[in-house]
Amino acid sequence: MAVWQKLVVYYFSGTGNSENVARWMADVAKEKGMEVSLINIGKTARRGIEPPEPDALVAFVSPIHGFNYPPVMLNFLYHFPKGRNNVLLLNTRAGMLIGKWITPGLTGIAFYFSALILKLKGYSIKSMFPVDLPSNWISVHPGLNERTVKYLHERNQEKVYRFARKVLAGGSDFRGLYEIIQDILVAPISLGYYFIGRFFFAKTYFASSDCDNCGVCYKSCPVNAIKLVDNRPFWTFNCESCMHCMSNCPKRAIETGHGYVFVVALLSSHAFSGLFYQYFKLLFFDIEDSFLGFTLESALFIGILAIFYRLLHYAMRLKIVERLIVYTSLTKYKFWGKRYKALKKF
Ligand SMILES: Cc1cc2nc3c(=O)[nH]c(=O)nc-3n(C[C@H](O)[C@H](O)[C@H](O)COP(=O)(O)O)c2cc1C
Question: How far is the CA of 32 from the centre of ligand 1 (A)?
Fold first, then answer.
């Protein structure tokens, strides 16, 4: 018997894992005769949200990006209306497989930070539940094989069904808290990703000459981060690297430019940073090897990357430049670049 009459699930999903978890929660709720609303925050207005009905159980599901919920989810929670409902926090993160052992991803500060936001708005947190589905982050690691993807889906669907039966019957599950030590250890990296890393990744995507300008990427980007510049897709700093565009491009034309980023990083760390430190010392004081120095150097690097990104966007009209960038992108190659999309049937 379900204790609640209604379940409202708000989710964000780049490649479908979190959407699957939201649907699996809905399956169990419907089985129990509950009324269910699934709200994809990538497709709805994220301001002026109506408060959930007082008797509804509310769930939030989102991937982990850089040891935190992505900014789109954090902003949504921040603008979410006040209420007194019971809330379930779920995430999907990078599961991998070693033999039959599912290696867990890392949640970082996602649960603690979002619980704090919601608690201050009056909500009562009933669960914190991580789900280790396949990692979609092919910018940093090779795409997973089919056996792993299928296995992780099957195991996690059972896990989410068990969780849903328990919480819909009035229970709670705080298994996310078992990992508090590693979550605290990676907390500084989550801040680094939020303030620097995500802007860096936003400037690593480009469309190759296989792009026929069909518009799928910029029309379906959940955060409207892709615009047309010079009649080709251009990734702005709003990009959250959710992988939606790369996974859905019908021409497989979107790549992560590893080679070009490596060259810009090398140039930046040797030529530009050296000059920057010298001038800063001349005008003010020595900041090399200090936290301030690291922060300013990182900001300088993002600025330089953005300028190179813009220049490259025009230079890629030249076939030779375009080929050079494409063939130095790991995502171009079969051994690495398998695009990830969550399975709908398995
Ligand atoms: C930019 C980016 C950052 C990520 N950071 C993490 C992370 O810090 N910890 C983790 O366990 N997984 C991380 N992942 C993996 C995703 O959280 C995981 O694949 C998730 O299930 C994707 O969900 P979705 O299909 O709903 O977008 C990251 C993925 C991306 C694209």
Answer: 31
